[in-house]
Amino acid sequence: MDKILKNSWALFLGMGLIMLAHGYQGSLLGVRAVKEEFSLTATGFMLSGYYIGYFIGAKTITNLISRVGHIRVFAAFASIASIVVLLHSIFVNPLTWFILRVVTGISMVSIYTIAESWLNDRSSNKNRGSVLSIYMIVLYGSMAVGMFFLNFSSPINFQPFILISLFMSLALIPILLTKKKAPTFKKITGMSLSELYKVSPLGMIGSLFYGTAQSALFSLLAVYAASMNFTILEISIVTFLVAISGALSQWPIGKFSDTFDRRRVIIYTTFAAAFFALCAIFASGSMFYDGMLGSSKKWFYIFIVLFAFASLPMFAIIFAHTNDYIPKEKFVAAGAGLQFAFGLGAISGPFLCSMLMNAIGPNGYFVFLIFFHGVIGVFGIYRMKIRDTQDNPDSQFVPMPQTITPIGMELNPITEPMDEPVKTDN
Question: What structural domains does the chain harbor?
Answer without folding.
Answer: 2-411 (1.20.1250.20)
